[in-house]
Structures are given as C-alpha cells and as structure tokens.
Amino acid sequence: MPNNIVVIGTQWGDEGKGKIVDLLAPQCSVVARFQGGHNAGHTLVLDGKKTILHLIPSGILHSDKRCYIGNGVVLSLQALEKEINTLKGIDVAKTLRIAGACVLILPSHIALDQAREIKRGAKAIGTTGRGIGPAYEDKVARRAVKLFDCKNPRVLKEKIERLVNYHNFLLENYYHAKVVSVEDTYSEVLRIYNKISRTVVDVAAELAMNKDKGGNVLFEGAQGAMLDIDHGTYPYVTSSNTVASSAAAGTGLGPKDIHHVLGIAKAYTTRVGGGPFPTELFDDIGKTIATVGREVGASTGRARRCGWFDVPVMRRAIVNSSVDSLCMTKLDVLDSLTEVKICVAYDLDGKRLEIAPSEPEAFERCKPIYETFPGWQAVTAAVRDYEKLPEKARQYLSTIEKLLDVSIDIISTGPDRRDTIILKDLVND
Ligand code: GDP
Ligand code: IMO
Ligand code: MG
User: How far apart are the first and last CA of the chain?
Assistant: First the structure.
C-alpha cells in the first residue's frame, strides 16, 4: 500500500508546504488539512500562475483528488466562501469535503482576536487577526459552534446566541470594543452553510473507506513546528498543535495511519509576527534574503523576518514530529551570497545547547553559534537535476543532513511546481 505522508513545516511557517503538497498530490488518493484555519497562506505556482490557498487543501488544482478539511481545522464560512470564489474554473464543490465536527470561526472571534492584540500592546503576538485563537479557546471550553450544528437552524440559533452574547459581554465590558450582531452572525452562517451543506461529511469514516480500498492520504499541515501551541515559542505561537501527530487527531485517523513524516524547511529561516528568533538578521544580508525570497506573508502581506538556517530549531522539530526526511526549499534564494552561515548550536548563559530549549524564557536568551561556509554564487534557481547543482550548494545541503542526521529527499529551487529535485519516492518506498 502506498504511504500516508504528513507534510509539516519545521520552522515558523511559510516553508513552502503548499508547493510540496501540490507536487505530491498526484501520488496520493486524497489530501487532508488537519489543523489551523485561514491564518495559513499556501502558495502554488504552475506555469507562472499563482494560487494562494488559506483553508482549501493544496491538492485542489488536481481535479481528480478529493480534498478534505478535517475536524482539527477551525472554519470561517465567510473565508471559505471567499476562497471558493477566487478559484475560478475549479469545481470545488465536486472535490472538497468538510468535517461536520469543524469548529466555526464567527465574526466575534475575529473581533476578540483583534481586541486582545490591541490590549497586549507591545507584547502583541502579531496574530493574523482571523479569530484562530478565540475559536480554539471555545472548542477547548466546550462552548463552540460546530459545522454540523448548522443542520438544525433552531439549535444553531440557540448556540450562536449563547456564544456571541458571551463574546459581546467580553468585547463591551473588558475590551471596550464594538459588539457583534447575533442576528447577522446567524443569518450569514446559515446562508453560507446552505451553499456548502452537501460537502459536509464524516471525514474519519471516509478516510477509513479510502484505506479499505487501498488508498493513501497526503496530510497537509499548516504553520510550523515552532508555532505549535505546546512545543513552540509560547505565547508567540498559534493556537493549535502543528506537530505531525496532529494529523491523526485532526482528521480522525489513528497514529498508526502515519507512515512518513516529511518536514519542509527553508534553506534559511523566516518568521512573521512577534517572538524569539535567535538567527534573525538585521543587516543587508537579511534584506537581500527578504527581497530575493519575496518574504512577504501570503495571508496578511506583512514583511517576514529573515535569518540563517537554525539547526537547534530543526532538531526540536525533528524530535517533536518524528521527521523521517526533509524537503529543503528556497535554496535558490541564497545563490548570490558570498558566504552562508548555519547556526549549529546555541549558547545559553555560557552553556552549549544542541537543541532549541522548551522554555520560552530560555529561548529569548539563546545566542546562535555559527559555522560559516563559502557561498556558491551560481544559479540554482529552476535547476531540476541534482547533478547540475553547484558543488558548494550540494555541500551546504549535505552539511545540514549530517548536522540533523536526516536525509533531504526533495530540493526546491523555485516557486513553480516543476522547479523541484526529487531524490526519493516517498510514497512508494
Ligand atoms: P507555506 O505556507 O509553507 O505553504 O509557504 P508560503 O506559500 O506561505 O510561502 C512560501 C513562498 O515561497 C511562496 O511564495 C512560494 O511560491 C515560494 N517558494 C516555494 N518554494 C520556493 C523555492 O524553492 N524557491 C523560491 N524562490 N520560492 C519558493
Ligand atoms: P502557513 O500555513 C507563518 C503566526 C502569526 C503569529 C502567530 C499566531 O502559511 O505556514 P494566529 O493568527 O495563528 O493566532 O497567529 O502565528 N502564523 C503564521 N506564520 N505562516 C503561517 O501559516 C502562520 N499562521 C499563523 O503570524 O505570529
Ligand atoms: Mg504560508
């Protein structure tokens, strides 16, 4: 049976997960998102045509692939409707299926997210402002409205009323912010639900059927390892588990249904929003990487912070997600540099640390220990053959493999699906 593969980000998001999911989708029976929401921005490029996805799985360009949004995803119906409308020429209703157990993001979650950020002032997380955190809070607090509640308008109305009244109490009395209309929330949710109701299914049951038929699953992660709610740089994280094991809980399959974990890593590091970032660059090299790598957020248009490749961060990601192999993206972005650095360990209060610390306070104090390598100063952009990569670029990759003790099985040299070097077939190994 072909492998079920989990694709996750190993840094702070935006590693190029979308591109790789789109690339691997033809080898898989179905594609499934398992956590996060429309805070994600996954960019696919095919023949120069760019598609940015937030909620819809990155298999959607393949019309014969069923795409699932699993129960672990927090779902904004408004964002979904908008995204479906942007996908002109694609029959989304034919291929997309959504778990009824998804928690709904309501406009009042967005209002709360934004009000909280304002209140945090200088300590703002730098969230995407899309209601992700408040929606997950309500899920854990057992008061969320779920997609299958929409089946019964009376129940839906009751649940929305109770929840939005509670949100409005907080908005008005604690945050001194504008309240949200219960009536508008209800009518908007119902209006969009009625358009997509035929796509609502029991995802776990469908994935079990797919398994019985010998089909495999490509699980698509959002965000990255260091944004994980438990294992990331808390509180500067997102509100879901981004680690690979989340693929099971977030779709309804079990941990034994994960056969291969593919970690996506940029050849350098970026982060958007606040929080510690030991290898961050504040100089011209950082600016060059940002410009060449077009490091602007696909969701919010914010500039991404850029820095050198960080081995301690990668080691934690590999441990937390049992990463089997890596895909290294954006190698081409480093093409012009005269030298490249790799952070091989941290110095924490005079002690050498091989793996990123679990304690955020300690993370803030970590100083990178670098090793410097000569740049290749040759073109890797759009190279599709490993043998054609410059020797020094190959050395950079093999140094990282040795430091991490994990093999790099895919190399990405450009945004286009085709600008990729596949060294191993992960689906049929
Ligand atoms: P995701 O959130 O992990 O799916 O990544 P994003 O789509 O947010 O960000 C990755 C960005 O880099 C997108 O603009 C991609 O088109 C682009 N990209 C992906 N792989 C490569 C690559 O190998 N080289 C270059 N130059 N760009 C890439
Ligand atoms: P993809 O899937 C990069 C960041 C936000 C912020 C923190 C919390 O494209 O890699 P949230 O809105 O989730 O409560 O914000 O997490 N963040 C991302 N950063 N890529 C993403 O997704 C992100 N999704 C959330 O910038 O720092
Ligand atoms: Mg992104």
Answer: 10
Q: Both tokens of residue 146?
A: 């779920």
Nearest CA to ligand 2 atom 5: 127
- What are the strands of the beta sheet with 66-69, ordered from one edge? 200-201, 96-99, 66-69, 30-33, 217-220, 5-9, 260-266, 325-329, 407-412, 420-422
| Residue 225: DSSP 8-state | G
Going by C-alpha positions, the residue among 232, 220, 259, 268 that lies closest to residue 15 is 268
Q: Is 125 in the pocket of ligand 2 (CB under 6 A)?
A: yes
Taking each helix axis from N to C end, the angle separating 182-196 and 153-169, rounded to the nearest 10 degrees, works out to 140
Find all residues with CB under 8 Å of 355, minimum gap 6, and list them.
Answer: 312, 315, 316, 319
pLDDT digits (tens, 9 = 90+) for 52-107: 999 999 999 999 999 999 999 999 999 999 999 999 999 999 999 999 999 999 99
Phi/psi for 114 (5° steps) reads -70, -40
Distance between CA atoms of 112 and 118, rounded to whole angstroms? 10
CA distance 194 to 174: 35
CB 25 within 8 Å of CB 62:
yes
Quick check: 370 and 341 in contact, CB under 8 A? yes
Question: Ligand 2 centroid to 350 CA: how many Å?
Answer: 32
What's the CA-to-centroid distance between 114 and ligand 2, angstroms?
Answer: 14
Q: What angle do CA 277, 282, 287 make, to 5 degrees?
A: 110
H or E segment and range at residue 103: strand 103-104
Query: Dihedral sign, CA of 249, 253, 257, 263?
Result: negative
Q: Which atom of ligand 1 is nearest to the CA of 18?
A: 4
pTM of the shown model: 0.98
346-385 burial: b if 16+ Cβ within 10 Å, else e: bebeeeebebbbeeeeebeebebbeeeeebbeeebeebee
Residues annotated as catalytic are 14, 42
| Helix (H) or strand (E) run with residue 23 in it | helix 17-24
Note the pLDDT tens digit of each residue in 114-161. 999 999 999 999 999 999 999 999 999 999 999 999 999 999 999 999
